[in-house]
Input
Amino acid sequence: MPSLHPAKTHEIYPSASPTTGHAVQFYECDSSLIEVLGSQLGLALEAGDTVIVIATRKHRDGLREGLASRNSDFGAAAQAGRYREFDASECLRDFMVDGSPDKTRFEKAIGLIVERAEAEVKPGHRLVLFGEMVALLWAEGKEDATVRLEQLWNDLAQRHSFHLLCGYPISAFDRSEHRRLFFNICGEHTHINPAESYPERGSENQRRRSVVRLQQKAEALETEIRISQQRLRLLQKVTKAGSWELDIVSDLLSFSSAAAKLLGYESASQIRLSQLMDLMYYSGDREAVAGHLQAAQRHRTDFTTTFRIRLGEDTRIIQIQGKTFYNSGSPIMLGVFTDVTPAVA
Output
């Protein structure tokens, strides 16, 4: 994969960031990751925020050196407890059970670190974390455990205020069978920051020329990132929503953990489109959704409709929005599910 200069001014989160955020940073080489982290975490420390780093020793050493060279007050911030670091492998051992993250142990181990740090954050400031435990799990071939850990972080964010950045080497996603899990990983994040050679700025023609220069695998992965960013743009327009993707050729529907919960599944999953239709117990709903999907595929138009499902004793009204895109010439549909069931007074 080609190595270009990293984007030193790239923001992990928009300037008007919410109280919580969960970003992912893909990177091509260690020096690029350290460059991005040094810039963004350095800005957080300068602003008086608290920073927690859960990383490998190599990255902790590199980041500490980079922060010290950028910020003359880094030593004071560390002395005051506003910069703390933990070993990613040791943290994983605290909550992994039979090759998978245990929720209770995760809450006791990582939840306690977050809770204590959050209690010490001064008013008007943020708690910012960088973690690569997920990258270690992925490197060990524990792909499902990786997605599960991302979900546990999101559960933790429901009770605590923090900004989390996860880091993955883009070379780790080099096989075609990674595609579904890559979707799930991106679907657990509120911001997706591409690798340094991804043509993020400039005209569409400039982007196309840049993409052509990438190797075939790099091109496919960065197309996935672009598609994932499209998903987030759709999600940011609505609340209490989850993202989905339909591979029109294979008829496979993938959805994020947030979407899974809306549909009654325990976690992010992949099902046949027919299985989604089976969830709709009114034939009129099935016909309406199928008609919108077909029209959107033919005309590449946006669509919005609703269907009803049963969850236990409750009937929920789910709104589905979507649009057709093309990935290397193959049609896919992206969209969101939203629970629009009227609240009971």
